[in-house]
Amino acid sequence: MRTIDTTPPGSGAAVQGRAARAGVPTIPLPRAAQDAVRSGAPVRTPSAVPASASTGVADLLRGPVRQARVLMSAPAAVYLQVPTERGSDVVGVLTSDAARLPLGCVLFRPSNGRPLVTVPAGAPAEVGGGRIVVGDLVVRAAAWWDPRPRLPSPRPALLPEGVRQLRNTLYGEGVPHSAFTLPGLPGGPGGPLAALRGAVRRADLDAALRTAVRLVGLGPGLTPAGDDVMAGTMAGLVLLGHPAAERFSAGVHALAAGRTTELSRALLRHAAAGRVSGEYAAVLAGLVGERPLGPAVEGLLATGSTSGRAMALGLCTAIDLVDRTLRVR
Prior knowledge:
Elements: E1 3-5, H1 18-21, E2 26-28, H2 31-39, E3 49-54, H3 58-62, E4 66-74, E5 77-84, E6 87-94, E7 104-107, E8 124-128, E9 131-134, E10 137-145, H4 160-171, H5 192-201, H6 205-215, H7 225-239, H8 245-256, H9 262-272, H10 278-287, H11 293-301, H12 307-328
Parallel strand pairs: 1-2, 3-10, 6-7
Antiparallel strand pairs: 3-7, 4-5, 4-8, 5-6, 8-9, 9-10
Helix pairs in contact: 4-11, 4-12, 5-6, 5-12, 6-8, 7-8, 7-9, 7-12, 8-9, 10-11, 11-12
């Protein structure tokens, strides 16, 4: 058994507490708590930091307090795995200059101010009751944002010049699509990207779904590039009104179990519901003429080392599948 030692640090053995003198292991209180014990003042708890939370994680934040664990922490993001009735889910605490992921609570501060605590993977945390607690940081949802873009119609018309601009920026003007590669993904005519292009040319959604078997979990990092391609495709099919979007998305998400990271699987689940990053949503808004497209495309392509380009490739794949499917009909 261990007990709390309220003895000031640096005190000699002569003034140590009874528990320490009896040889019982003790846990030293932080200096602020020790001062409070000696003075009789209440221990101050850190004030909650406000954030703008995605409605995609509203059920977790508004629900009962759940014990969570840290998946990863960095200056711009802390990701927490939260156990749920259906398995587990992921919530992120993000700085204002991080990618605006659909599972995130975005602080009103950039990463250069270091508002996020550095905690090791596996460290305990709490999610629920309207807040997130990780280390000494307490975050509360002071505002909400919807990660599912509001488009003009269930099957919105995209500006042809906008689609050309997206493709030229992604692939390179005058460069054949077959030459496009992503780090961590096999290239060449036998690679999964070539197979995906072939499925698109034939407007064959079943073949595209078979390609997902080769792409899910493929690539390095917390969100492998293969997953990002599939997430961009899934979300695009859902938001652009492909008639088989739900079936395709359910199939890809089912494949992700045991094949990829917890964070990436959570993002695939959000994509299946049409919930996307703020950067991806901005490109869609540009494609329907509601905002300038150029800066939005550049913002998406700059996301992560490969994630933004992979998501853009997925969006282009979805645009082609929707176009070819509806044209055939």
